[in-house]
Write a structure and sequence with these properties.
It is a single chain. The protein is an alpha/beta fold and 577 residues long. Helix content is 54%, strand content 12%. The chain folds into two domains: 303 residues, 3-Layer(aba) Sandwich (Aminopeptidase); 232 residues, no CATH class. Helix 12 packs parallel to helix 17. It is globular, with a radius of gyration of 25 Å. The relative contact order is 0.13.
Length: 577
């Protein structure tokens, strides 16, 4: 049976669905109903606050503070300034930018009273300063404007508890404003904060990801899933971010033990700290998604009689066409038990169609494929000049580098399709079991990474049982697998995209484990049996073409001139937030 068309169709459908899941919504204009978030309305503030660079202490920074105070007053907030002198490294950094380190950081704490001032408050936080070379339309004026528009969309009369907007200064100098409020000086608002939501950006577009939480996040994440199904969130992102040496204003909040959520969009990475990151270049769809995501959970929390209780950290991810699915780590063990049981049933039903030798060969092929994928990505990364490359220039090249890594993965799949194989069930059961094993390791070591492997393993196990039913033959065996593979591949594509945006340029090979669920999902569609060289030649040629195309893209990145989006201090500054 020729399964090539099904393989190609399934892969294409999964990637198409994955592409759809990472698209930003259509921005809503200023004529939207009053209770909706409107990127069009928020852009009015973006255009005022990001018309020029506005580092701490500059006239543009002071003018922005005055504008925010006027806007907050019209929204019913009582605002006070938190003035923090600059010392040490922050002062040195501002002086290096040509600024005046004797000028203090000026943060704003704005409170709009709810029905019961004794209840813990809900706070939105964003920083209003920029680096010296960038207008900062995304980082982080988009967050400031989104917070103002969110506050406008929530009538004060509906507030059961206080709503607080905190616009910090000198985040780009070392989280100065946030540390003054939540760590060093213990501002009074710190003790009153029940939940805090930070709005950030590293780039100029893309969907906003909820990528970090406060401690004991279980009930809060489940509340987010209930009221904001269109939000993007991943406990894998939380796990990865905690391992990176990066900070945002959420860091001192989290260190204080306050519950919260950290949102940011990181697409269009060329815009990070770029002189070109003007209001006209901001992706308004990204602003819309950030606002939609945060408005829904903020409205729920500020009108709720009780805030979510502290509970065990949740395992969660955004499932294509469904929304955020969240559950406890203990539930993950039940999920693994179900996967194991389904695979055992499938193996027993098809006992005559797999062999130990065939399964060992399939396991060897999978391991070799993962090694080759890693080596190929590493080699192509060397060819692209990304090893030791300038940070901001590599950010500008991320779309092409992501395509390089995707072509390398595709080449490995095509080479696998050309490799001699045992029976259909040798590969199917072995690669599904490999995915299950990876999910088991993740459950033990990094439960937050569970959905990456456990969800595709569940889909593969269900497909295996459906295909293994006694009397099922031919296309009826693999058709259910193709249908179930599509959402699994979409999930993998979405996770690959966000992971690559986060860590791809310096080490794209870190995404190789994401190939394990792809193997498990696509195994039934790959040709089985020894095959002739003539039958294998199309896959070999297609795989070679993918490698050559990837090499060409990598070389293009290497030979490109420095991107015009790179800030003038590139190579001399450490990333802050």
């Amino acid at each position: 049976m020729n399964r090539w068309p099904l393989f190609l169709l399934t892969l294409a459908a999964g990637l198409l669905l994955g592409w759809w899941t990472i698209q930003t919504p259509t921005p809503v204009d200023a004529s939207a109903p009053a209770d909706q978030f409107s990127a069009g309305r928020a852009m009015v503030d973006v255009r005022v606050l990001a018309r020029e660079p506005h580092p701490t202490g500059t006239q543009a920074n002071l003018a922005g503070i005055a504008h925010m105070e006027r806007r907050l007053a019209t929204l019913g907030f009582t605002t006070r300034r938190v003035v923090t002198p600059l010392n040490g490294k922050p002062a040195q950094r501002l002086a290096k930018w040509g600024g005046d380190p004797s000028q203090p950081a000026i943060s704003l704490v704005a409170i709009r009273r709810g029905g019961d001032a004794a209840l813990p408050a809900v706070a939105l936080l964003a920083h209003h300063d920029s680096v010296w070379a960038s207008p900062g339309a995304a980082d982080d004026i988009a967050g400031v404007a989104a917070a103002l528009e969110i506050a406008r969309a929530i009538p004060q009369a509906r507030q059961r508890r206080d709503l607080v907007l905190i616009f910090t200064d000198a985040e780009e100098l070392g989280l100065v404003g946030a540390r003054a409020i939540y760590r060093d000086n213990e501002d009074p608002i710190a003790a009153r904060t029940g939940v805090l939501i930070n709005l950030e950006a590293r780039g100029g577009g893309g969907r906003a990801m909820m990528f970090q939480t406060g401690p004991q996040n279980g009930d809060l994440v489940r509340r987010l899933a209930d009221v904001t199904p269109g939000a993007s969130a991943s406990s894998l992102a939380v796990t990865l971010y905690e391992s990176l040496p990066n900070d945002t204003d959420f860091t001192p909040v989290k260190d204080r033990g306050i519950a919260g959520l950290n949102f940011a969009f990181i697409g269009d990475a060329w815009g990070y700290h770029s002189p070109l990151m003007t209001p006209d270049r901001l992706d308004q769809g990204a602003l819309q998604h950030l606002g939609d995501s945060v408005l829904a959970i903020t409205r729920d929390l500020v009108t709720a009689p009780a805030l979510p209780a502290r509970s065990e950290n949740a395992v969660f991810a955004s499932a294509p066409l469904i929304g955020i699915i969240a559950y406890s780590p203990a539930t993950g063990w039940g999920l693994l038990a179900a996967i194991a049981g389904l695979l055992v049933i499938a193996a027993l039903w098809r006992r005559a169609e797999w062999s130990l030798g065939g399964m060992l060969m399939a396991l060897g092929q999978a391991v070799l494929a993962l090694i080759i994928a890693g080596l190929l990505m590493f080699g192509l990364n060397l060819l692209s000049g990304s090893v030791g490359g300038e940070y901001y220039d590599r950010l500008a090249a991320l779309p092409r580098l992501e395509m390089v890594a995707a072509l390398a993965a595709l080449a490995v799949l095509l080479f696998l399709a050309a490799a001699p194989a045992g029976s259909l069930w040798d590969r199917w059961l072995t690669w599904a079991a490999l995915c299950f094993a990876g999910a088991l390791v993740a459950q033990i070591v990094l439960p937050g990474a569970g959905p990456v492997l456990a969800w595709p393993a569940l889909l593969a196990a269900i497909a295996a049982v459906l295909g293994a039913r006694p009397g099922t033959t031919g296309m009826a065996q693999v058709a259910p697998a193709a249908l179930l593979a599509i959402p699994g591949l979409a999930l993998g594509a979405e996770l690959f995209h966000f992971a690559f945006l986060g860590i791809g340029a310096p080490m794209p090979f870190a995404t190789v484990p994401l190939l394990i669920p792809v193997l498990a999902l696509l195994a039934p569609m790959l040709p089985d049996g020894p095959g002739s060289l003539g039958n294998r030649r199309p896959a070999l040629l297609a795989g070679a073409a993918a490698v050559l195309l990837a090499a060409g893209l990598a070389l293009w990145v290497n030979l490109d001139p420095v991107a015009p989006s790179v800030p003038p201090y590139a190579g001399t500054e450490k990333k802050q937030g």
